[in-house]
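FORM 7B: Structural annotation worksheet

SECTION A. Query
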Amino acid sequence: MNQEILDVLIVGAGPGGIATAVECEIAGVKKALLCEKTESHSGMLEKFYKAGKRIDKDYKKQVVELKGHIPFKDSFKEETLENFTNLLKEHRITPSYKTDIESVKKEGELFKITTTSNTTYHAKFVVVAIGKMGQPNRPTYKIPVALSKQVVFSINDCKENEKTLVIGGGNSAVEYAIALCKTTP
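SECTION B. Predicted structure
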């Protein structure tokens, strides 16, 4: 068990996790840990994007106004990966690779985070930035017919001024919520 209390533990070293770690470092957060279950950062980009694949800042015309200190522009896979590698080096962030998070539980004022190898961390805050390449996690159960016309899995299917509930805590859910705030009460 790790006895040190972290200020922030970040789960996932993809674009969202790296951005969170960099923002923590810039803000002076001293005890932040970036955990990644694979052997390198940006595993989804590395694994699923072909060499030379273009990566657009705005996906399917969903314009997201970026806040913070992380520059992101249209580029290609290799340039994007190099940019994230350089950000980690520049901000002296060393991710804890091969650290697969098994559970996160609130215990009093802290979170208890346990890995699959039974290492335990305690943190004041936890940021889950695991993403899934912008694909929603669809429920495994059948959606009742009465509700099926009200359930959408893409922001493109939402109408202006329509009451909307975004379910999820991944990068896509957050991006959708931000975009919807501009057109929906």
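SECTION C. Observations
The two ends are 45 Å apart (CA to CA). The chain is about 25% helix and 20% strand.

SECTION D. Sign-off
Analyst initials: ____
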